[in-house]
Amino acid sequence: MQPSADSLHLGNYLGALTNWVKMQDDFNAFYMLADLHAITVPQDPKQLRDNTRRTAAQYLAAGIDPEKSALFVQSQVPAHAQLAWVMNCITGFGEASRMTQFKDKSQKAGADTASVGLFTYPILQAADILLYQPKKVPVGEDQRQHLELTRDLAERFNSRFGKTFTVPEAHILKETAKIYDLQNPQAKMSKSNEPKGTINIMDDSAVTLKKIKGAVTDLDNEIRFDVENKAGVSNLLGIYSAVSGRDIDDLVSELSGKGYGDLKSAVADAVLAVIEPIRNKANELLADEAELDRLLALGAERANAQAEQTLADVYEKTGFIPRK
Predict the structure, then answer these.
(1) Catalytic annotation present for 188
(2) What is d(CA 253, CA 225) in angstroms, rounded to the nearest whole number?
(3) CA dihedral in degrees (300, 43, 45, 66; nearest 10)?
(4) Secondary structure letter of residue 32 according to DSSP
(5) d(Cα 154, Cα 148) in Å, to the nearest integer?
(6) End-to-end Cα distance, the chain
(7) Tell me: the pLDDT tens digits for 216-269?
(8) In the chain, beta strands by DSSP E
(9) Active-site option among 68, 178, 188, 213
(10) For residue 177, what is the DSSP state?
(11) Would residue 191 show up in a list of annotated catalytic residues for this protein?
(12) Which candidate in 68, 178, 191, 281 is catalytic?
């Protein structure tokens, strides 16, 4: 994830982080704080540094174990930027132009304001992956196009210079509950939405409670799961189910005959039971900045060991003179 906000939101946690915590028991996993990607749009330097530490603390608090996995900051592993330049040089301009996320973002902000970094970030993303020679990459459906570019570049380099990269396959994450905005339940919960619609891990409990109590519902006061006709109520039920691990039908039965106030109270209690311990642990970690930085340095050391090995092979095959 990019450390471009001071808190992860509930959608980040349920949609990605819970899966990542489980995966570290079965895989040799590398988890990266993508600060190089974050600067494709303007960032305040102090805020970026603070957000990077805050994001790391939330990863750790949610269960990423630095004994099992490498948790590291992208900019502390120079091979990411170095391999990205080599990959830039074997990527066609038209190929890069077809990346849908760049087209979407540049259309919103205006092409003249979009940075070259924003244009080429899928190539940096390919380097991020290929350095670690993974067989599988955990992605959602919206990242398939970027993984296909990664596969194409790996195959192109292998064809031109000899077998170098493992060509990774997609590990499509198990479908999780889709968490939507509390104020606009047709839109996914996102840090770019209105703050009132986003449940942030690091928010004070009173703030979270107020947001859930103010969530959009409808006028008939009947609690049932009906995405088309009752999007707000269905979103609250989906959130309740996701954080409690209970089936939506069971929750609807339990709440039968009750009103939306009861639903919102139940959702708030269930959400806070999950995120309060994470927030408290994250704040403990942030109180000892030196220890947090030490853990990130350990992760960077592990990542560098793998990344430098791949980069040295790439540089030798590309024709660069090795440094003695």
Answers:
(1) yes
(2) 11
(3) -20
(4) E
(5) 10
(6) 36
(7) 999 988 999 999 999 999 999 999 999 999 999 999 999 999 999 999 999 999
(8) 30-33, 70-73, 136-139, 169-172
(9) 188
(10) P
(11) yes
(12) 191
